[in-house]
Amino acid sequence: MERMERFIDNLPPMNLMRSEKMTLVQLIIPVESAHRAVSYLGELGLLQFRDLNAEKSPFQRTFVNQVKRCGEMSRKLRFFKDQISKAGLLSSVLPVVEPDVELEELEIQLAEHEHELIEMNSNSEKLRQTYNELLEFKMVLQKAGGFLVSSNNHAVAEERELSENVYSNDDYVETSSLLEQEMRPADQSGLRFISGIICKSKALRFERMLFRATRGNMLFYQSSAGEEIMDPVSAEMVEKTVFVVFFSGEQARTKILKICEAFGANCYPVPEDISKQRQITREVLSRLSELETTLDAGMRHRNKALTSIGYHLQQWMSMVRREKAVYDTLNMLNFDVTKKCLVGEGWCPIFAKAQIQEALQRATFDSNSQVGIIFHVMDAVESPPTYFRTNHFTNAYQEIVDAYGVARYQEANPAVYTVITFPFLFAVMFGDWGHGICLLLGALVLIARESRLNTQKLGSFMEMLFGGRYVLLLMSLFSVYCGLIYNEFFSVPFHIFGGSAYKCRDATCSDAHSAGLIKFRDPYPFGVDPSWRGSRSELPFLNSLKMKMSILLGVAQMNLGILLSYFNARFFHNSLDVRYQFVPQMIFLNSLFGYLSLLIIIKWCTGSQADLYHVMIYMFLSPTDDLGDNELFWGQRPLQIVLLLLALVAVPWMLFPKPFILKKLHSEVAPMACLAPLSLILM
Amino acid sequence: MYGFESMTFNIHGGYLEAIVRGHRAGLLTAADYNNLCQCETLDDIKMHLSATEYGPYLQNEPSPLHTTTIVEKCTLKLVDEYKYMLCQATEPLSTFLEYITYGHMIDNVVLIVTGTLHERDVHELLEKCHPLGMFDSIATLAVAQNMRELYRLVLVDTPLAPYFSECITSEDLDDMNIEIMRNTLYKAYLEDFYKFCQKLGGATAEIMSDLLAFEADRRAVNITINSIGTELTRDDRRKLYSNFGLLYPYGHEELAVCEDIDQVRAVMEKYPPYQSIFSKLSYGESQMLDKAFYEEEVKRLCLAFEQQFHYGVFFAYMRLREQEIRNLMWISECVAQNQKSRVHDSVVFIF
């Protein structure tokens, strides 16, 4: 036991696995260099400021005006971006590298640009509206004029025909269609019409409403306008329908006009006289073409302005975002009594102190400050934050682990093991070297293009793949390895490592699937013998192999997790966790699943036919019964009874003492004092 | 069905219940209100709200803000959430959700009709309508001259049509008639909603009947108080009360004959749940009654969230959010008009 202790004490320290040692530091920054210092620290990214104004609401803080200005600027930038994408221009991919402009300057610039854009927009909107009106008028003239002409002609022709046939066909008037009857008096009596244009989606409801309002005393013609018209508000193309309503009476007219207004239908008068119609059409067309050129010119001007904004947009956006972050951080600092310095507190890893100091000196120098920035370590009461140093390779693994929970300060970090165990366990399940190679190629492509993809904005799915490229790499490598062991290439076995150890009983191979094969030489050197493929016992054989291997791997993984919890408890000098958590957990796990693993190994070594399901189930149901054929080794029954009792004892041991002891400690110590850290680590 | 909702509720309603509970968690808290009440300008309010769920809706508003913009954007958020839930809902939840909006629909109809009566511009009126109560042909309401036309032209297509059957008269529209129409419609709506909830059964019926009964009683009291001193006869007044609720039927008999606020108070104090509301008011005072009712309502709505597997949470959430928007409107108005001392007059804290 003592030797064990000594052995454990002499193990190398688990520096790699523990989060960085942190220290609380205080910064006293002269006001003139504060902005620069914070922005340099932000670029360094190794200091976490504590919010010293937590009790103040956001608008009571010192730099609230600057934050507001940044918010306003980013709103303008969003507006530009929106306009650019609406205009269908691509913002330039290559950001123009220019020295950062001053914030004030940028603010003025942005305000100018916004003003200019809004003015151009309102101008072009006005033009666009006139243009739309003219366009609609043109359509109405064409279509509605068509209706009128055809109905007029019809009526005239009808009349002539009627007068000719008046004797031969007396009841023609009754049989002629309702439409023609209605149309005829159009020339003489008070039948009037309104023509206009309406959104296609509203046309049906419009017609129904007209019908109801006039109690059916109206005629409604409609025809698709043919062209699409741009909606000035949403800048989308809308389909419209030209309509003509015939009605009689002044009251109906006001009603219909009101309905038109309610539905947003634009009414345009169409003269009944054809020559007048032609004249108006000509006028409208000429004005349309004029407007079109003006609109085009305006559009070109606007596009040019937008493109020139687009060049800088990316840079401006990141700059504004940076400024906002700087001021948000500055808001976390306190003024000292003299109002000449800002006092900040924060956490930094110990190794980064030199870097931070260097950055602070640079800031002092660059802002020509007379007074340097004071940087000193403070004593911390609270527990420091967890910080793991990661690189390209380990970052993804750390993120996977963090998704389950972030380790406490200086707690063992399972991400170190995860680098291997996660891809390996994946490969145990995936296990196919054909698929593995595909995955490998994908991962290699991602890694080869790393530098280029890094700067690009990827979709959410690609981003996930790219972030986990090294995970993919290891997963694919392990998949190839496991696939070779399982001997599966796209689920087909190959004779890579020599010939099979089995052969048919005779030359015809007729009984290969009934009587089976015979073994004629040494076992297949690596992995599963390809002859298992397609044999009757393939499934039982492979299942038993994979299942048992999975159990062994799983038990090993769980043991590793519990062992880590032991090292954690030792590190924090927490004997309670060792005694009432680690030991019973270990006993429970190993007396049941550890025992199963032992049985599996013995069965593999001895080639026994014992049914392990049976052994495990009856270990609980009737532990005292004779094992019979399933006995794997001498003394198995008493061992099982002992293990079962151990497991039974371990459960209350694990569950009950710890909370009670903690409660006792808690009530003994002053109520406000810090508790012994509660930890339950199952990795 | 009662007692077995927990087995089947989540098949169709589980996702949306989770969504609505998530939304509820986004309601402003007392701390938020405290901060909001300290704001000096509307920009401060915007800044504070940008840290809440309203953030994305307000972030693109240029700086000189108006109260109306804030309210509009906050309402937009509620409408978006509502539309999302309605899209995801299956029967009977979708019908239930639609029922929630009918109240706004009635208000909008009344708003437009009154507006046209006073010759306001229709588009101006449309902007004032609550977006939850919009329907396709709402703008056409302006065409109608009397109730019959109103029904025949426009409302026959809307879900409000059945409620209208009770108040079709050929009388011309005037302010009094419109107000009676509003209350008749509301009565029919509440009764229909109540019946629908009873049909759903289970916890929904239990909780919703409580909430709707409160709503009906509140309306009864409001109708009584508002009609004191008008030419509305007792019988007419009696007809406007909904036929359910705690006050039905004996309370209604007594309310119908009330002549002043103290008599109303005497009637209401006989009912234990309302005793606390009226005991807070001094005699002869009716201004604070609204706030007291709102406070009581909010309390009841919050309680709806205590139980699971029922539709009451959707109703409660919508109502709470509306109350929150009313609060925001009041706070912004007070801030905009420099009346910060009055901020607490009308704000109903939700938690």
From TrEMBL, chain A:
<comment type="similarity">
    <text>Belongs to the V-ATPase 116 kDa subunit family.</text>
</comment>
<dbReference type="GO" id="GO:0051117">
    <property type="term" value="F:ATPase binding"/>
</dbReference>
<keyword id="KW-0472">Membrane</keyword>
<keyword id="KW-0175">Coiled coil</keyword>
<protein>
    <recommendedName>
        <fullName>V-type proton ATPase subunit a</fullName>
    </recommendedName>
</protein>
<dbReference type="InterPro" id="IPR002490">
    <property type="entry name" value="V-ATPase_116kDa_su"/>
</dbReference>
<dbReference type="GO" id="GO:0007035">
    <property type="term" value="P:vacuolar acidification"/>
</dbReference>
<feature type="coiled-coil region">
    <location>
        <begin position="103"/>
        <end position="130"/>
    </location>
</feature>
<dbReference type="Pfam" id="PF01496">
    <property type="entry name" value="V_ATPase_I"/>
</dbReference>
<dbReference type="GO" id="GO:0000220">
    <property type="term" value="C:vacuolar proton-transporting V-type ATPase, V0 domain"/>
</dbReference>
<feature type="transmembrane region" description="Helical">
    <location>
        <begin position="424"/>
        <end position="447"/>
    </location>
</feature>
<keyword id="KW-1133">Transmembrane helix</keyword>
<feature type="transmembrane region" description="Helical">
    <location>
        <begin position="587"/>
        <end position="604"/>
    </location>
</feature>
<feature type="transmembrane region" description="Helical">
    <location>
        <begin position="468"/>
        <end position="486"/>
    </location>
</feature>
<keyword id="KW-0375">Hydrogen ion transport</keyword>
<comment type="function">
    <text>Essential component of the vacuolar proton pump (V-ATPase), a multimeric enzyme that catalyzes the translocation of protons across the membranes. Required for assembly and activity of the V-ATPase.</text>
</comment>
<dbReference type="GO" id="GO:0046961">
    <property type="term" value="F:proton-transporting ATPase activity, rotational mechanism"/>
</dbReference>
<feature type="transmembrane region" description="Helical">
    <location>
        <begin position="549"/>
        <end position="567"/>
    </location>
</feature>
<dbReference type="InterPro" id="IPR026028">
    <property type="entry name" value="V-type_ATPase_116kDa_su_euka"/>
</dbReference>
<keyword id="KW-0812">Transmembrane</keyword>
<keyword id="KW-0406">Ion transport</keyword>
<keyword id="KW-0813">Transport</keyword>
TrEMBL record, chain B:
<dbReference type="GO" id="GO:0005774">
    <property type="term" value="C:vacuolar membrane"/>
</dbReference>
<dbReference type="InterPro" id="IPR016727">
    <property type="entry name" value="ATPase_V0-cplx_dsu"/>
</dbReference>
<comment type="subunit">
    <text>V-ATPase is a heteromultimeric enzyme made up of two complexes: the ATP-hydrolytic V1 complex and the proton translocation V0 complex.</text>
</comment>
<protein>
    <recommendedName>
        <fullName>V-type proton ATPase subunit</fullName>
    </recommendedName>
</protein>
<dbReference type="Pfam" id="PF01992">
    <property type="entry name" value="vATP-synt_AC39"/>
</dbReference>
<dbReference type="GO" id="GO:0033179">
    <property type="term" value="C:proton-transporting V-type ATPase, V0 domain"/>
</dbReference>
<dbReference type="InterPro" id="IPR044911">
    <property type="entry name" value="V-type_ATPase_csu/dsu_dom_3"/>
</dbReference>
<dbReference type="InterPro" id="IPR002843">
    <property type="entry name" value="ATPase_V0-cplx_csu/dsu"/>
</dbReference>
<keyword id="KW-0406">Ion transport</keyword>
<dbReference type="InterPro" id="IPR035067">
    <property type="entry name" value="V-type_ATPase_csu/dsu"/>
</dbReference>
<comment type="function">
    <text>Subunit of the integral membrane V0 complex of vacuolar ATPase. Vacuolar ATPase is responsible for acidifying a variety of intracellular compartments in eukaryotic cells, thus providing most of the energy required for transport processes in the vacuolar system.</text>
</comment>
<keyword id="KW-0375">Hydrogen ion transport</keyword>
<comment type="subunit">
    <text>V-ATPase is a heteromultimeric enzyme composed of a peripheral catalytic V1 complex (components A to H) attached to an integral membrane V0 proton pore complex (components: a, c, c'', d and e).</text>
</comment>
<comment type="similarity">
    <text>Belongs to the V-ATPase V0D/AC39 subunit family.</text>
</comment>
<keyword id="KW-0813">Transport</keyword>
<dbReference type="InterPro" id="IPR036079">
    <property type="entry name" value="ATPase_csu/dsu_sf"/>
</dbReference>
<dbReference type="GO" id="GO:0046961">
    <property type="term" value="F:proton-transporting ATPase activity, rotational mechanism"/>
</dbReference>
<comment type="function">
    <text>Subunit of the V0 complex of vacuolar(H+)-ATPase (V-ATPase), a multisubunit enzyme composed of a peripheral complex (V1) that hydrolyzes ATP and a membrane integral complex (V0) that translocates protons. V-ATPase is responsible for acidifying and maintaining the pH of intracellular compartments and in some cell types, is targeted to the plasma membrane, where it is responsible for acidifying the extracellular environment.</text>
</comment>
